[in-house]
Amino acid sequence: MDTTHTITTKKGEFLLSREESADIGVSICLPETLTDLSEDELAQTFSVSDRSIVVKTDKESKVAFVMNATDVAVQEDMDEEAFVKGLFAAQHTALSRLVPGYQEYGIKSKKIADHTVICAEYMAHSLEDDLYNIFFLFVHEGKMIYGTFSYLLEDAPELNIMFLVCLDSLQFTEN
Questions:
Q1: What is this structure's pTM?
Q2: What pLDDT, on a 0 to 100 scale, did the predictor assign at position 163?
Q3: What is the domain-level CATH number for residue 101?
Q4: First to last CA, the chain
Q5: How far is residue 66's CA from residue 31's CA, in Å, rounded to a whole number?
Q6: What parts of the chain have a pLDDT lower than 50?
Q7: Quick check: 115 and 136 in contact, CB under 8 A?
Q8: I need a labelling partner for 78 at 20 to 30 A (CA). Which of 35, 90, 120, 127 fits?
Q9: Long-range contacts made by residues 155-158, C-beta under 8 angstroms, separation at least 24?
Q10: What is the tens place of the pLDDT at every residue in 83-98?
Q11: Number of domains into which the chain is organized
Q12: How far apart are the C-alpha atoms of 158 and 9, rounded to whole Å?
């Protein structure tokens, strides 16, 4: 996908621009309406050990994108797809048990540039709203990379397509 791309929905036009996270070796196209949280907001939201690599939000429309990476010991005797499916199963079990009001809408697996990417779409309750989430997970260069697109449940029919396009825009670089 090009560096920029426009998606049109009933909620308006969204310009997607490529964001690179060099420290984990990936880039992804995201709506320009998403901005980085300030250092103070990050400190209030995440503990130091839990600080995500990428946290972007559009507070006005209650849209958020979070992506994190953690080192993982890749098992040499297992192909990548089976390994990723095993990691995803563990994360999925935790999500379904820990997320208030978890209601799953589907799980998809796809190949993007020879990497297996698995995502789950689900609804969760927050203190103020019901949220629609697309949780994704993949492995790249010894790291499990995972994240979530999160937005109001009522906006899901319009925003799902855009965030699935964002996920399809993943590109991998060598560190």
A1: 0.89
A2: 92
A3: 3.40.1000.10
A4: 21
A5: 13
A6: 1
A7: no
A8: 120
A9: 155/11, 155/61, 155/63, 156/132, 158/9, 158/10, 158/11
A10: 999 999 999 999 999 9
A11: 1
A12: 6
